[in-house]
């Protein structure tokens, strides 16, 4: 039942806000609203009961194993929420004077330094509000760099065929043409093909490493050489940073610019699809172009003061991308996560994420599932392909994914990357226990048996959720995006 | 090991299963020269207790002042229940609802959000949210360019009375899209976008025009006349509004004869804390006619195999993960949790509560302005009507006054000299329902003190 | 699965507390623990996931209608939790000096004044930690009163047969013999019988009004006269105060002493069975005996200071009943509730609680259920008896209660009061909407139909809960109160 | 109307259904002279915003001092997750689990709590909790009287080194039960319960003896010798302990040859905030032999109709709602929510984390005592061993010193002169893991200042 269906005209059972209407007759009559909006009129209890019960219809990290590949669904420390909810942090106005902002600014400065260290980069701007905005900022900086050199011929961005969809979309938003680079059967970029695509028209390449194939791009140094020699720059999509956190720095691989997904690698909660944060890091070349604002430090450690760096400090900046400085509250959470982990903890992230993925890959292979890249090490994630089951049993990747829900396991990412047919992209993360993974594997083994015995049943899954499979075609054709009183 | 559950025995068993002898072996495909050394800028780990102590100290540094700054972020009372419910694990730690059957909570909530935002804006539809108001404005401009097929110019009129960092974010984001952003000056007397200034463009091919209500100076624009003029030019009207104000002010869907085509803005006033600037969310509504050009996630109501109502992501064909380089935007998330809070907020306060919050904010602002204007040399910068922000003219430099007010723990407003040198003696103040009469009088007496100090 | 079953020796995936063990070798070896306790060793994520999922196996006010008679399950404002969680309130040491306690003490003083006003009494002590401890304090004061007058012959406490079980248990704890007073067929105390029981041996009577029969005891003034003339005192069990809050004051009815259940009438959350708080209020006669501590006020309203009143101030006090001053955090919540309601809101509680109960009673009667007291007004609660269904259909009060769970409705109180056979005691409270009650009534009507069509099915209910009906006999015979590693 | 959802139309429909014309009519059975008039002490309603503002002001009055008081309430770090999960609506707003099938969450949690408390105390069983430590001690004494059938005397030996308000609460609660509470003096040199003092009662019929570990002065008792002596008297040993200390100190079940019979205390140190004294909870454990004499709720593990494990209230025949005047106690609730928090706390920190918290508290206390004892005229009041509290002897009146420390925002400890005039120059200090070395040094320098000021 929708909250609107519980609304009754004139119901006002709350104590939340002023009970008195104000006299607004001083405002011009034609600018004053005539008809009140159709917001629900419910009691506090009804609102709480409704949304509490709605929440119970979700899977989440706090309730289930959630091995959604490429999304890094790891534990979100509650301490980070507590810290971000402290009154001086929660209630600080974004335009409060620096005299009343030293606590916040110092956190942001320290986070910049931490992110520079783990990425091997020279400068960080925290402002992008999501990975995709970080990508935008990164490619915009590449563009600004070439423009600053009057190198106007560079009109193309290269993107491996396995890339996240945001990569080509971003390149287009920045005014580039996109050229796809093929990936070979081992999941590596086809370097020979790459060489034929590179030239004076190449502004850069957007890659992630490990790639979305769940393997480490072994020829990354060669690729960097090819691109750099052609005058292009390398963009690192930080979506998969969790795989190598503390183990390999993108700056050392030759990347010039990158973003990080703090809601992945730095464990800020995903919030049902956001907010996240997508800081960018750059090497020396791109420092002058970083988006504003950035936090600067003055004075010694003991008597440091912090201030905003803006357009005046960074005259070549690509500009600001939000009204203030981006998703500050998320940045605070990431800072807290970083100081809770510390140096040693940071090293362990990549190690145990990799251990978990390789363990699951090996176990699933033994249970009869086909790995997409059986001869490769898994990184923090890996791919199985259900082509055989689809062909032999008529049970495809989506059917298995839906059936997993009945086993109280969140489904992995399905049908991505596009180049592996009927695939599951599985990412356990380092915060899941062996037992949690074993349960998932047992569920998969059981579904395989079910698929052999009763494929029809598996195709009808799920059976235990609030709804059965939904009619997506109807959703798109008979577009119903807002409730209307009937 | 914080957050890593592996016992020694677990690790051994797992390594055996994999068939390697150490975790290190799992990195054997990575060229050794790429392996990172010690991290030098990451501090040693703190436990939660020590972390909280450090954060409490940092928080305390920034606490305690009375805040009269608005300028795009607004202090409203947020009912305790809002974030208690929004931070339930099932909302906070879920991801984008790719598996609809296991995400009906988030999906239905967003459908309700879309419904609320549409009725609040008096528009047909809303998306599931964008990053924030400023980037949302840029998305609205890009959407207008896609939607207004009759226009070839890609020319957008942007009033100077639109929030300055919204304008600069807009410029940065559409930078490479061959869009012509034309600034329309504001009227120095009224602080509004004069229809006269627009008339200069009459007859030109203009793709869309932005109307801010209230505008950055808190002034009310003549939205009906502006909207009608825009439509006469076959141009699209993009409304940029404070959603809280829409509980009292006429909503974009009812502007002029036909209503605005796109309404956009920042949802922060609806239950989202100021939090140093984010996470907020950008909302976007539009008419049914152009919904397929809308960027961002959309949740649709449909039915399941049994015919039972359910909710799912829809029109995904517009999005980057399907359309890749041909997507309407590279956006791949909404600001789910902030939207969750706003939806609960709107449910709890209801239409009348929202009107009361907006109305009391208006009333308090007018009261403070009256109080301040009773001080010698202080007056309104502009004539015309204001909502809950107002530009106040001082006899001396506003930056200096604000600095001295801050020393007295009053964040007195936004220095308008930062926006326009002609306004260096003006500050933009904002008062919401959170301030008491005593607060307003405290402000006045502090300002009297400060002016005496400066003027000797 | 129990949290213990997820434990693995050596697992320590938390960042919560100091990671280092301290050197305790300075302590005498024989006083140091040899074997570490068998507490679970799990990760933060495992703990959160386990308890989050456990919570989802509960019904609660925030998720369901919960008309548990005599328990007053109304909306618990979240604002009260927020206020009680403010750092100065949450972290105040109970023995902090008064110089550092004025905020807390002023809240407690104001709460005392509010409770005096709504009860019509002359003094309040907030210290009892639950209704039953409030009862104990009340009867102990009655005893202290008689003792102070050297009136040693009073050895009996009268208790109506419909009373809560705590009443006789409390009287015994205070060293009294209990005599039951019969209740007539209209739910009123049998005054004639009462008169025969009263005498110089009567220390007092314990009653609630409205009684547990869900009706107002109409002869309360007569009863008070009888008891007082015999030299006894009247104790008011505040469990049913919600029925008359703002409408009738126990002090005006002739009661000398009473307790309140703040977790009922003042909406503090029940917490799965506590904590509550059970302040006592007394008239002039019993003021000298109030339990300590109490908060006193000195100086005028503008320059008031607050301080603890203790044994020195109240030399005849029955003493302290807890280490400090009882469930302070619950008292703060009750104070917040009172100031959110205000004067007018307080009046409305009894009115709307009564409206809701009478509405439900009438509707259920129309649906074919038998009211225990059909000729009486319901108060805030009412009783139906399922004797007929038990006899005719073999479906008893418990079966119907269990079946209600399948309709997502919490069951009412069953088999209480003891004098009505096969009964349901139903209390909707004022915070529930007409729609919520209508749903419950529809469920009851449906269960009645089911009972006629398929009584067997109803007897097997519930079917939709985490477990089916439990084997209580096995629970008591093969006592398993603690998990043991096997 | 706050919290009341009725619309005018709802009310009309409901009145019609009932067949009356006004709500007032529903009160027609109440004699008119009993109807209440205006409430004079209840203020006008505040909305949540104004209420929170008032409460923030009240909270701020009491905030900010460094606290070194223990004496029955202990400041420990509580992981953020503990109360985030405990205050989920499903835990916080549920009632006593009378409907077991719809309360498995609370029931299983309490079963886990009972299991944890039993293992922490090294006892067979635990109940679901009592109100607090002090009233729990009284319940333990009443239980011992029921359980020790061989004893007729109803005589209980109560050491003077037991917490003073525990002793007075015990006296108040058992007042009418013909129980003979005999105070056993503490040894002035060691601050402990001397076996010598007990020997005076050797051979007498003693029902039970209380042993506090650590005792009120923070001193460690010789629990093994005491327990053995008690059992030699055919008396029951009631252990009164700080549960946090049991992570490091030997647990009651392992005291002496046979272990204590009942272990009781306050659970507050395990994840429950100090909150001005409550809500805390009393825990109680005992041996299997006397479980049927245990007061309070008990949760048992059983099976459902399908043989599936489940949890239910059990042994209810002991309780007031069944047995009425023959109940083991009038208690009808536990402190459910506080127990919920403690259970989550114990799960999160685990046995090693708990030992670290206890150990660091011990270490910090020893460090502070050492620092303070380096001041001229300051020393330990008692010899022997302490855990995380210690009586410190001052050269001047402790009450005065504490008052002056409080002016410096240090709550320096508990004035032992309030307990015994002979200790008027002594204060009881407590340091937990929450204090840093800098805090300890701050304390020392403040004390030096204060002593200089007083001694002039």
Automatic annotation (TrEMBL), chains A, C:
Keyword Cell wall biogenesis/degradation attributed: no
Domain Glycine dehydrogenase C-terminal positions: 351-452
EC category: oxidoreductase
UniProt cross-references to NCBIfam families, sorted A to Z: PRK04366.1
Source domain of life: Bacteria
InterPro entries named among the record's database cross-references: Aminotrans_V_dom, GcvPB, GDC-P_C, GDC_P, PyrdxlP-dep_Trfase, PyrdxlP-dep_Trfase_major, PyrdxlP-dep_Trfase_small
Residue ranges constituting the Aminotransferase class V domain according to the UniProt record: 152-292
Single GO MF annotation: glycine dehydrogenase (decarboxylating) activity
Function in brief: The glycine cleavage system catalyzes the degradation of glycine. The P protein binds the alpha-amino group of glycine through its pyridoxal phosphate cofactor; CO(2) is released and the remaining methylamine moiety is then transferred to the lipoamide cofactor of the H protein.
Keywords: Oxidoreductase, Pyridoxal phosphate
Assembly information from the UniProt record: The glycine cleavage system is composed of four proteins: P, T, L and H. In this organism, the P 'protein' is a heterodimer of two subunits.
Catalysis performed (reactions): N(6)-[(R)-lipoyl]-L-lysyl-[glycine-cleavage complex H protein] + glycine + H(+) = N(6)-[(R)-S(8)-aminomethyldihydrolipoyl]-L-lysyl-[glycine-cleavage complex H protein] + CO2
Similarity-based family: Belongs to the GcvP family. C-terminal subunit subfamily.
Record carries keyword Oxidoreductase: yes
Any coiled-coil regions, as ranges: none
Record EC number: 1.4.4.2
The name this protein goes by in its record: Probable glycine dehydrogenase (decarboxylating) subunit 2
Sites of N6-(pyridoxal phosphate)lysine modification: 264
Pfam families from the UniProt entry: Aminotran_5, GcvP2_C
Co-factor requirement: pyridoxal 5'-phosphate
From TrEMBL, chains B, D:
Keyword vocabulary terms for this entry: Oxidoreductase
Catalytic activity: N(6)-[(R)-lipoyl]-L-lysyl-[glycine-cleavage complex H protein] + glycine + H(+) = N(6)-[(R)-S(8)-aminomethyldihydrolipoyl]-L-lysyl-[glycine-cleavage complex H protein] + CO2
Domain of life: Bacteria
All residue ranges annotated as the Glycine cleavage system P-protein N-terminal domain in the record: 3-441
Pfam family of the protein (one): GDC-P
Enzyme class: oxidoreductase
InterPro entries assigned to the protein according to its UniProt record, in alphabetical order: GcvPA, GDC-P_N, GDC_P, PyrdxlP-dep_Trfase, PyrdxlP-dep_Trfase_major, PyrdxlP-dep_Trfase_small
E.C. designation(s): 1.4.4.2
GO MF term set: glycine dehydrogenase (decarboxylating) activity
CDD domains xrefs: GDC-P (cd00613)
PANTHER family for the chain: GLYCINE CLEAVAGE SYSTEM P-PROTEIN, GLYCINE DEHYDROGENASE (DECARBOXYLATING)
Quaternary structure and interacting proteins, as annotated: The glycine cleavage system is composed of four proteins: P, T, L and H. In this organism, the P 'protein' is a heterodimer of two subunits.
Function: The glycine cleavage system catalyzes the degradation of glycine. The P protein binds the alpha-amino group of glycine through its pyridoxal phosphate cofactor; CO(2) is released and the remaining methylamine moiety is then transferred to the lipoamide cofactor of the H protein.
Family membership: Belongs to the GcvP family. N-terminal subunit subfamily.
Name by which UniProt lists this protein: Probable glycine dehydrogenase (decarboxylating) subunit 1
């Amino acid at each position: 039942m929708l909250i609107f269906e519980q609304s009754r005209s004139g119901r006002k059972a709350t104590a939340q806000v002023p009970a008195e209407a104000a006299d607004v007759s001083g405002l011009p009559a034609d600018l004053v609203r005539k008809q009140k909006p159709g917001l629900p009129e419910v009691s506090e209890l009804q609102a709480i009961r409704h949304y509490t019960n709605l929440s119970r219809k979700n899977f989440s990290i706090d309730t289930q194993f959630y091995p959604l590949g490429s999304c890094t669904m790891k534990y979100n420390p509650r301490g980070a929420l507590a810290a971000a909810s402290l009154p001086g942090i929660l209630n600080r106005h974004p335009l409060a004077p620096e005299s009343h902002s030293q606590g916040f600014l110092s956190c942001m400065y320290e986070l910049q330094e931490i992110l520079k260290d783990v990425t091997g980069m020279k400068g960080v701007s925290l402002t992008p509000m999501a990975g995709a905005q970080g990508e935008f900022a990164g490619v915009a900086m590449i563009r600004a760099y070439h423009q600053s050199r009057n190198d106007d011929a560079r009109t193309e961005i290269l993107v491996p065929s396995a890339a996240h969809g945001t990569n080509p979309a971003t390149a287009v938003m920045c005014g580039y043409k996109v050229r796809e680079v093929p990936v070979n059967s081992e999941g590596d970029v086809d370097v020979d093909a790459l060489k034929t695509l590179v030239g004076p028209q190449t502004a850069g390449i957007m890659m992630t490493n490990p790639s979305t194939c769940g393997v480490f791009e072994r020829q990354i140094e060669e690729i960097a050489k090819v691109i750099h020699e052609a005058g292009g720059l390398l963009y690192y999509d930080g979506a998969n940073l969790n795989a190598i956190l503390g183990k390999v720095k993108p700056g050392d691989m030759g990347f010039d610019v990158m973003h990080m997904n703090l809601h992945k690698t730095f464990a800020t909660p995903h919030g049902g699809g956001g907010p996240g944060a997508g800081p960018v890091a750059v090497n020396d070349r791109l420092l002058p172009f970083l988006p504003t604002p950035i936090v600067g430090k003055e004075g010694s450690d003991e008597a440091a003061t912090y201030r905003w760096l803006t357009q005046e400090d960074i005259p070549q900046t690509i500009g600001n991308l939000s009204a203030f400085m981006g998703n500050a509250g998320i940045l605070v959470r990431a800072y807290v996560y970083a100081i809770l982990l510390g140096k040693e903890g940071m090293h362990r992230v990549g190690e145990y994420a990799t251990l978990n993925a390789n363990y699951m890959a090996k176990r699933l292979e033994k249970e009869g599932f086909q790995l997409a890249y059986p001869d490769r090490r898994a990184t923090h994630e890996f791919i199985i392909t259900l082509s055989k089951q689809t062909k032999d049993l008529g049970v495809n990747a989506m059917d298995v994914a839906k059936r997993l829900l009945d086993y109280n396991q969140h489904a992995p990412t399905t049908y991505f990357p596009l180049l592996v047919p009927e695939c599951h992209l599985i990412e356990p993360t380092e915060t899941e226990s062996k037992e949690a993974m074993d349960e998932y594997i047992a569920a998969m083994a059981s579904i395989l048996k079910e698929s052999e015995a009763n494929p029809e049943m598996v195709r009808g899954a799920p059976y235990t959720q609030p709804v059965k499979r939904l009619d997506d075609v109807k959703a798109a054709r008979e577009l119903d995006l807002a409730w209307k009183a009937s | 090991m914080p957050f890593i559950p592996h016992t020694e025995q677990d690790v051994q068993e797992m390594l055996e299963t994999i068939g390697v002898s150490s975790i290190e072996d799992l990195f054997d495909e990575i060229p050794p020269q790429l392996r990172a050394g010690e991290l030098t800028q990451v501090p040693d780990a703190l436990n939660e207790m020590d972390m909280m102590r450090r954060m409490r100290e940092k928080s305390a540094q920034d606490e305690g002042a009375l805040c009269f700054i608005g300028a795009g972020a607004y202090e409203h009372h947020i009912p305790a229940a809002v974030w208690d419910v929004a931070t339930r694990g099932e909302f906070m730690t879920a991801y984008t609802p790719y598996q609809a059957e296991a995400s009906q909570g988030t999906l239905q909530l967003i459908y309700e959000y879309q419904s609320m935002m549409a009725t609040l804006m008096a528009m047909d539809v809303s998306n599931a949210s964008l990053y924030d108001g400023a980037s949302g404005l840029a998305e609205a401009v890009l959407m207008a360019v896609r939607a207004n097929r009759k226009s070839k110019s890609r020319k957008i009129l942007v009033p100077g009375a639109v929030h300055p960092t919204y304008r600069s974010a807009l410029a940065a984001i559409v930078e490479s899209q061959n869009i012509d952003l034309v600034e329309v000056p504001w009227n120095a007397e009224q602080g509004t976008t004069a229809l006269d200034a627009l008339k200069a463009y009459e007859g030109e091919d203009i793709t869309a025009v932005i109307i801010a209500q209230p505008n950055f100076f808190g002034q009310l624009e003549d939205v009906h006349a502006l909207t009608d003029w825009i439509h006469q030019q076959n141009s699209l009207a993009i409304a940029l509004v404070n959603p809280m104000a829409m509980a009292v002010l006429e909503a974009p869907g009812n502007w002029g004869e036909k209503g605005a085509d796109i309404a956009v803005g920042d949802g922060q006033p609806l239950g989202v804390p100021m939090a140093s600037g984010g996470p907020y969310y950008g909302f976007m509504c539009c008419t049914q006619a152009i919904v397929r050009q809308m960027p961002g996630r959309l949740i649709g109501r449909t039915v399941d195999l049994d015919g039972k109502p359910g909710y799912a992501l829809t029109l995904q064909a517009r999005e980057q993960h399907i359309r890749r380089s041909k997507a309407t935007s590279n956006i791949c998330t909404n600001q789910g949790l902030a939207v969750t809070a706003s939806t609960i907020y709107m449910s709890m306060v209801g239409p009348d509560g929202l009107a009361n919050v907006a109305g009391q904010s208006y009333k308090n602002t007018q009261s403070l302005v009256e109080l301040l204007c009773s001080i010698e040399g202080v007056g309104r910068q502009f004539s015309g009507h204001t909502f809950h922000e107002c530009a106040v003219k001082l006899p001396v430099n506003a930056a200096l006054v604000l600095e001295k007010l801050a020393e007295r723990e009053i964040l007195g407003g936004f220095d308008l000299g930062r926006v326009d040198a002609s306004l260096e003696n003006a500050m933009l103040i904002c008062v919401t329902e959170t301030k008491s009469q005593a607060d307003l009088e405290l402000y006045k007496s502090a300002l009297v003190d400060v002016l005496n100090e400066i003027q000797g």
